[in-house]
Description:
Layout: H1 2-21, H2 27-50, H3 55-67, H4 69-78, H5 90-100, H6 117-130, E1 138-144, H7 145-159, E2 163-168, H8 175-189, E3 193-199, H9 208-216, E4 220-224, H10 227-233, E5 243-247, E6 251-255, E7 273-274, E8 276-282, H11 284-300, H12 306-309, E9 322-328, H13 336-346, E10 351-355, H14 363-374, E11 378-384, H15 390-397, H16 400-405, E12 409-413, E13 417-418, E14 422-425, E15 429-433, H17 439-444, E16 447-453, H18 456-470, E17 472-474, H19 477-481, H20 485-495
Helix pairs in contact: 1-2, 1-4, 2-3, 3-4, 5-11, 6-13, 7-8, 8-9, 13-14, 15-20
Amino acid sequence: MKQTRQIIFVLLLSVTFYLTFFSEQPFFIRALAAAVYLIIVLSVCYVLILENRSPYKTLVWIYAILFFPVAGYIFFIYSGQLQVRGHLFDSKRRDNQRYLEPLIDKNTSSGWNQLNREEQFISNRIEEEAGFPINFSSEVSVLKDGDETFPAIKERLREAKDYIHMEYYTFRDDQIGQEIIDILKEKAELGLEVKVIFDAAGSIGMSGHAKRSMKKSGVEMACFHPIKSGFFTQKINFRNHRKIFVIDGDTAFVGGLNIGDEYLGRDPKIGFWRDTHLKVEGEAIRSLETIFMIDWSYLKDEVLDLDTYTPVQNTEELSTGGVQILSSGPDANRGMISELYFNMIANARHSVWIATPYFVPDKDIRTALSLAAKKGIDVKLMVPEISDGFLPKYATRSYFGKFLDKGIDIYQYEKGFMHQKIMIVDGQSASIGTANVDFRSLNLNFEVNAFLFRTSSVTSLIDNYKQDMEHSHKVDAKAYRNRGIVVRTKESFARLFSPAL
């Protein structure tokens, strides 16, 4: 109903705008059109005010709608601004709770006492906001780059005996993609349950032939927010950026790598691809399976039973710390990832190390990083020197100046394109997953991150980070301030598009 009303609004705006300013109709008709036009514009602005956004954002959108009424309104509703908290994902929010209920564990683990107060706070916030508990009966292994990740995934897929659940933003049918497809088809033909979720925009390059061949072999497929229908439902701007494999309920994979040859460094335009993935075993798999089930139910209207796939196991607690999975997106508390990043940075005692391919932070994260540096905390930021886009590259660099002035160390990775999304705090806890530090990941995309507390894998992340610094150059503050006017112009121009990155 709301979608219909918005379409009617756009049509009325267009018609009344034309009649008011460009037609040669009688004065009475033009005056009536102007009145209707004004009522619609003012009503939209009134709704904007009632949403209690920041004054700056509210005024920006009001100006856009007042001065560019038709184009401004269309951009507003299709930029993901209008209905993030509205009706678009109401049903998904309700279903989420049904799936999250089995994860609730009211027993206090002895491993909980291993965490300090700040780590317990972060863990509690994740459970309160997203419903995913921390567990101490899981083990995660760090997989560095595609050379380690894809062989591990393919090996476990070939060993699958019961089912394979896969959810990916980008799934291509190039060389590595076809290798995955062949295994999926083979397992489906053997009678295993194989379910695949792929994002319509991220996987737009996957051929129709590949999709048909998988379906013919018995692979069940679900497309997340098809682009064509997305134009009419406002869902085109909300993408599923997750990368998840769950196999037989005992092994899962999650992290930064999509499925495509470029993630193995085979794209000559990009070159070497630096990324990080995780292999997960133990109880944390139930959380990843739950995320898949929630999304599958949303797309296919099919209810899956968590205990059928990943029954609760009486597993002894591991001594390597806690693992907690978090899903975020417009069906949850908007800005949850940003809030967690803010708290991790603000509560840091010694160090904050960040690696991200796209760094377009919101005000809260910028403030937290600046304050951390002022307190003498070792703050390091690593971004790629080589980028896969003009806007992300220069928008990221537009933030260097203020951070360098605060004493934050910035490194630009030079060996190739760095795509990993990592935050390491005090050398003890970390976040790794699919969320970038940009507007889309923090507000619009469906993401999944693993939060690690005092696990041995955090040490691996630290070691890898140090190795990455050897392939990076540290940005010199003086050289940055003396950059040319052309570079400054590019940065300022790209920064204008920060909300769309």
